[in-house]
Write a structure and sequence with these properties.
Keywords: ATP-binding, Nucleotide-binding
Domain ATPase dynein-related AAA: 28-162
GO molecular function, one term: ATP binding
Largest sheet: 5 strands, parallel
Protein name: CbbQ/NirQ/NorQ/GpvN family protein
Organism: Leptospira levettii
Number of strands: 9
Oligomer: single chain
Order of helices and strands: HEHEHEEHEHEEEHEHHHHH
Number of helices: 11
Length: 260
Amino acid sequence: MLTTKIPYYEPTGKEVEIFQMAAENSLPLLLKGPTGSGKSRFLEFMAHQMGRKLITILCNDETSAVDLVGRFIVKGVDTVWMDGPLTTGVKEGAIVYLDEIAEARPDTLVTIHSLTDHRRTLFIERKNEEIIAHPNFLLVASYNPGYQKGFKELKPSTKQRFLSMDFPYPKPSVEEKIIIGETGISDTIAKKLVQFANLVRKKPELGLAETVSTRLLVSCAKLIGKGLPSRLAGRTAIILPLTDDEDTVTALQDSFDLIF
C-alpha cells in the first residue's frame, strides 16, 4: 500500500539503481538474504519512491494457487468470482511481493511461471481465462538461502526466472546509521548494538537457527530509547527471541552485559 510517510532505508550499494532497471524492463526480481536484513523495508521504500501499489503475499507451506489467483465464493444466492492478490496486482500494475517464496508449495509456484518470462500472463484455470499483465506489474520475491538448508531450497528452475540481489547484513558503519535513522538512538548505543551483533554472527558454534538481525537491533534500540535499561532491552528484544536454550541465553547475556 502507498503511504504518506517515506519508509526509512539506508542504501548499502547499487540496489536502488538495479531495482529501477528491473522495473523499467519488467524483469522479476529475487531478494536474497537472511531474516531481518532489510529486504521488505527496501521494497516498501522503492514502492513509495516509484509511486506504485505494493501487494505483499506471505508464503507458507499451505499457500495454494487459489490463495494467489482467486476463488469462486457464494454471495447470497449467487456464486461470484473474487480475485486473489496476485490477480489484482497483475491487473492493476502493482508490485506483488512473494515474501519467503521458498516456503510456498512447489505446485503453487508453477502458477507464477508464465509471469516470469516473455509471456507475462496469468492463467486462471477455474475461469479458463488468461490475463495479460499490466505494463507496470512487477513480481518481486524474497528468499533466505541459509534457512533450513537442504529442506527449503528454491528450485534452480524457479531461481533462474528472476534477477537476483544480495541483502547481507550491512557493514558496521551502515548498520549503525540504520539504527540511528530508525530510532534516533545515540551513536554510542548504536555502535554497541552493532558490536554485539557482529560478535554473535561470527560464532556459528552457538547453534542459532537465525543470528542477530538488523531488525532485532532496531527493536532493542527503540526499547532503550523509551527508557528500558539496556541489558534488559537486549534480553527482551534480541537474546530471548533468538533462542530458548538456557545455556545459550546465558552466554549471549554475558556477552551483551560485557559490551553494555
